[in-house]
């Protein structure tokens, strides 16, 4: 076995002596345990998860679904970029969800603004669906659909070749369709990307880089 156990461990003794886990000599990817937990992945607001090391190709069509829970009004949800301008990005800015797409001709944005500023940052689960179909893009939040017009109708393919960054991205990585550098704080679950008939559910524990991200469980409620 070469991977860590997704669990809580306490009251460990060796030769009758209890280990002090409050002040370890070193610590890596260990979070505190919570009395109540929910399925999902906890992002502590300091980092990101990096998926698909060889690069994800958005091209003409992609449908993204995920659920999020946060009390923060700002945070990166997801970004896939290229060395050029082609990219897609999902982020929360001032309590609004923005879906940006650049197929090479210019950035277009679908924006969902809830009636109350904190409606999406209330610590409850919200369902998001972002769809790019050639030059059309749409965003559905909790069943509410937002369309946006795209003047660049001839440009239909986002030729991305970088990893999928979720919840943030490294300082030295360029994201052409994200305006925020703020890492997401809260919980995400059920991240699914669909292209045509191919549907992929992403397991954050299989990310090739995890910083400040704790797969498998979320605190039952943020305090």
Task: Spell out the blueprint of helices and strands.
Blueprint: E1 13-14, E2 17-18, E3 37-38, E4 41-51, E5 61-69, E6 75-81, E7 87-93, E8 96-102, E9 107-112, E10 126-133, E11 136-141, E12 144-148, E13 164-166, E14 185-195, E15 198-201, E16 209-214, E17 218-219
Structure description:
This protein starts with 12 loop residues before the first strand and ends with a strand. The chain has strands at 13-14, 17-18, 37-38, 41-51, 61-69, 75-81, 87-93, 96-102, 107-112, 126-133, 136-141, 144-148, 164-166, 185-195, 198-201, 209-214, 218-219. The strands form three sheets. Strands 4, 5, 6, 7, 8, 9, 10, 11, 12, 13, 14, 15 and 16 form a 13-stranded antiparallel sheet that branches. It has no helices and 17 strands. A hairpin with a 4-residue loop joins strand 8 and strand 9. The chain has 223 residues and is mainly β.
Counted beta strands = 17
DSSP helix fraction: under 10%
The CATH architecture comes to Sandwich
- Tell me what portion of residues adopts beta-strand conformation: 35-45%
Q: Can you summarize this structure?
A:
The chain has 223 residues and is mostly beta strands. The protein is built from no helices and 17 strands.
Keywords:
single chain, mainly beta, Jelly Rolls, 13-stranded antiparallel β-sheet, two-stranded antiparallel sheet, elongated, Laminin_G, ConA-like_dom_sf, Neurexin-related_CASP, LAMA1 protein
């Amino acid at each position: 076995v070469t991977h860590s156990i997704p669990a809580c461990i306490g009251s460990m003794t060796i030769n009758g002596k209890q280990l002090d886990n409050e002040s370890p000599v070193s610590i890596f990817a260990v979070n505190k345990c919570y009395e109540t937990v929910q399925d999902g992945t906890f992002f502590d607001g300091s980092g990101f998860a990096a998926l698909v090391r060889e690069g994800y190709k958005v091209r003409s069509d992609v449908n993204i679904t995920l659920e999020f829970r946060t009390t923060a009004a700002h945070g990166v949800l997801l970004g896939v970029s290229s060395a050029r301008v082609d990219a897609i990005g999902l982020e929360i800015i001032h309590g609004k969800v923005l879906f940006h797409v650049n197929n090479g001709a210019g950035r277009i944005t679908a924006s969902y603004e809830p009636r109350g500023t904190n409606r999406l940052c209330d610590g409850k689960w919200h369902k998001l669906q972002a769809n790019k179909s050639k030059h059309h893009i749409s965003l559905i939040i909790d069943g509410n659909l937002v369309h946006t017009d795209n003047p660049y109708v001839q440009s239909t393919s986002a030729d991305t070749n970088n990893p999928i960054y979720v919840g943030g991205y490294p300082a030295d990585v360029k994201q052409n369709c994200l305006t925020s550098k703020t890492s997401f704080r809260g919980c995400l679950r059920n991240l699914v990307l669909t292209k045509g008939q191919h549907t992929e559910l992403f397991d954050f524990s299989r990310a090739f880089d995890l910083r400040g991200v704790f797969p498998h469980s979320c605190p039952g409620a943020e305090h």
